[in-house]
Amino acid sequence: MWLPKHDPLKNVLYIDLTLKKYWVEDRSDLFEEFMGGTGVAIKLLEEEVPKNVDPLGPENVIIFAVGPFNGIYPAVSKTVAMFKSPHTGNLGESHAGGRSSIAIRLAGYGAIVIKGVSDVPVWVSVRGKTVKFNDARALWGMRSSFTVGRIIRENEPNPGFRTIMRIGRAGEKLITYAGVITETYRHFGRLGLGAVFGSKKLKAFVVSGRGSLPILNKREYRRIYKELYDTIVKSPAMKKYHDLGTPVNVLRLNEIKALPTRNLKSSQFENAKLLSGENLAEGYLARRMACSHCPVACIHLAALREPYVDEPYFYKTTFVSYDYEPIFALGTMLGAKSVEGFLKLLDRIETYGLDAMSTGVVLAWATEAYEKGIIGEKELLGIKPKWGDHEEYLKMVENLVNQPNDFYKALGRGVSYASKIYGGEDFALSFGGNEMPGYHTGPAAPYSFMVGARHSHLDSAGYSLDEKTIGKELSAEEIVEKLLKEERWRQVLTSLVICLFARGVYKPEVVVEAFKPLGVEATVDDLFELGKRIHLEKYRFKIREGFNLDEYKFPKRIFETPTPHGYLSEEKLMKMKEMFKEIIYKELSLAEK
What we know:
By secondary structure, this protein is α+β, with helices and mostly antiparallel strands. It has helices at 28-34, 37-48, 100-106, 145-155, 169-172, 193-199, 218-234, 236-243, 249-255, 277-283, 324-330, 339-352, 356-371, 377-380, 390-402, 406-411, 415-422, 444-451, 462-468, 476-496, 508-515, 524-544, 570-592; strands at residues 11-16, 21-26, 62-65, 79-84, 91-96, 111-115, 122-127, 130-135, 161-166, 180-182, 186-188, 202-209, 285-289, 299-308, 311-322, 430-431, 434-435. The chain has three domains: 8-209, Aldehyde ferredoxin oxidoreductase, N-terminal domain (Aldehyde Ferredoxin Oxidoreductase,  A, domain 1, 4-Layer Sandwich); 245-431, Aldehyde Ferredoxin Oxidoreductase Protein, subunit A, domain 2 (Orthogonal Bundle); 441-504 and 523-592, Aldehyde Ferredoxin Oxidoreductase Protein, subunit A, domain 3. The relative contact order is 0.12.
């Protein structure tokens, strides 16, 4: 029922890197039933990935999926990537903005499945109906992911509407939290898609399209589009994203004592004003950019000016994209003392194609482990990490990517893995194997990090519920109920695929109306039922791949540092986890019947 009439969304492009072959299948069945985006991606993942495969082996696949609203409505700019994660050994899901969703749509596809492994490094170019396999051996090992993007851009003919996705050296080295860079300033960051690219010898993936998308009722479409556009550009929340971007969160979270600092030894940072969105906008903002089909322009680029060593009056200017999460991970978690130091560290991580969030949490854990004498200069190869010393952290990033010894190889697999080998598990801030996001707001946040399908703050926005209920204690039952409903609605949004910044605009009744000009009739109840089914499909896959909530514990550190709701209760969090588990297993059992 969800597939718009005459829409090329139904076409799925399959690419086999081993055989250097490709083909297209009509998968109307999937898009009719699961809409697109995460809904279709999880079903393709179930089909294509055998049980218990090695995430870095040839049987893992990479799936890119878009939805019926991509290329049609404003602020619908995301592409879903789905794979088996080398970082957690379970469901991998990452979303990126930029141009990728529109390029895939205009190339004539709703999803792309990449399987197998190439015998030599390649970059794959999808040019509408044609797929080219290009030798990338000259690009493999290149230090800068930015340089790789520029070379490909200059050598790709007839771009049309184009996206260039590529990995850096972190992906080549199979670091399990390596990301994929797209359009230079956007990322498939979390859970290690870059390592999966690297394992397949896939240096880059380019998609360009020149097609068009059908609209059945053009008059009604124009009316709805204008209403959506006007709502977005006039929304105070969206203006916030345009003016300061997500770094607007820094001072707010610091004020309520919810800003993770120095590996969460504290929830308030004395230099918060330095790293605030306000200070960055006033002193460093060079330009704003927008994803395709989005009027908000929430991408903020800072200008980092560095003098040349032998030429004191000549400067190198680098543009660095900053958001709240990198500020948390590479700023407050590491006790940053200067904006320039933070930007240098972020730029280095972007150059190598690491996930900024996981890298920052990894470095913070290593710093505290060094303080406590758990690791020493032998493991660190002479480096002495110290809060706020970005020069030492830059050296650690170099070793993290080069992996000169067993310790740095362990760091390349995340804090959960490294702490099990070297100790320090009590302050290893990992949930379900994934490093924590930047919110120490109350009981809903860590609960959502643990049980969310992606172990992400974007699963159900537990942090938001915490912030809205400061001064009021919700029961375990209330938190579980509210966050489960929110996560399931987000499955609909990420199947369309809407930027979650616009979730307040695309409410259920608005989505129903927006479908009508495309020839799709549905109800709000239909949407919520679909969200529930997609969520259960994700958990069915997770459980199939060995996910077991009983094996996961909350990091001890989160109970030692107060939140705006006071000290967290481990008993309450465990109760919430058990309640969630009971609901999921019961619903999965009923669905199978």
